[in-house]
Amino acid sequence: MTHSPCLDSEFTTRVDESLLDELADQLTVKGYAVLDDIFSAPTVASLRAEFEHPDCQFKSAGIGRQDDFTIAKQVRGDRICWLEGRTGAAAFFLDTMAMIRQGLNQRLFMGLFDYESHLAYYPVGTFYKKHWDAFKGRSNRVLSTVFYLNQNWCETDGGELMLYDRADESVLEQVAPVGGRLVVFLSEDFPHEVLPARQERYSIAGWFRVNTSTSTYLDPPG
Ligand code: OGA
Ligand code: MN
User: Fold this and answer.
1) Bridge-partner residues for 145, per DSSP?
2) DSSP type of residue 197
3) Which bound ligand lies closest to the C-alpha atom of 120?
4) DSSP state of 8
5) How far is CA 1 from CA 82, 84, 148, in A?
């Protein structure tokens, strides 16, 4: 009997206990993981359609407090829109990220408290220069994720995510932004960049965070 009263089966993921084991292992050994075909192709297509949603108002991404967009453009050219779980696809994506959050907390005791994410659109020719997502002790972002939504991405399309070794800046990984692929890495451990995209590039970037008010409270004073 495969009858299901729910219609939400249009969205599927291969995130399960054994995938969480694999992810936890890779984070422990290397500090990052590249996981392919995390969602079914129709789920990826529905997430890609989020970019056309009328509620999504894309803004040029900033780089800091002043948000000097002339300077920001030399650093990053993506346009972003924060992801809310308003559509079925977005809610399914966020539910899956919540499964990952709980799965990693159970396995690695990371104390991940919540997850924030935005849709990111890189027009042709744009990039994101080498940067860190978090600095030790100065951010509550501890684990970065990037999920790609580009069907038929070719080698000549560029736009790779480069992950660098923090000690000698050598290339650890060059990751093509192919649809269905999820990259997860420790935010404080890896400088990284997005090479210039020669096709329009779509992704969902996100960060698992720890609860800083709790850690401030637990931290010894001084
Ligand atoms: C970011 C980022 C990587 C990517 O948004 O901070 O590094 O591959 N994105 O899109
Ligand atoms: Mn980044």
Assistant:
1) 184, 206
2) B
3) 1
4) G
5) 40, 35, 34
d(CA 215, CA 24): 23
**Cβ-based neighbour number of residue 131 at 10 Å:** 12
Q: How far is the CA of 43 from the centre of ligand 2 (A)?
A: 24
Q: What is the DSSP string of 115-177?
A: EEEEEEEE-TT--EEEE-S--TTT-SEEEEEEEE-BTT--GGGB-PEEEE-TTT--EEEEE--
> Cβ(75)–Cβ(173) under 8 Å?
no
14-40 burial code (b ≥16 CB/10 A, e <16):
ebeeebbeebbebbeebbbbbbeebbe
Rounded to whole angstroms, the Cα distance separating 188 from 186 reads 6
The bridge status of strand 192-194 relative to strand 79-82 is: unpaired
This prediction's pTM: 0.91
Residue type, 66: Q
In the chain, the domains with their CATH numbers are 17-62+71-209 (2.60.120.620)
What 3-state class would DSSP assign to 193?
strand
Q: What is the DSSP letter of 21?
A: H
Closest atom of ligand 1 relative to the 192 alpha carbon: 7
pLDDT recorded at residue 68: 75
Distance, CA 185 to ligand 2 centroid (Å)?
10
Averaged pLDDT, groups of 10, the chain, 222 residues long:
55 97 98 98 96 92 73 91 94 98 97 97 98 88 97 96 97 98 97 98 98 57 43
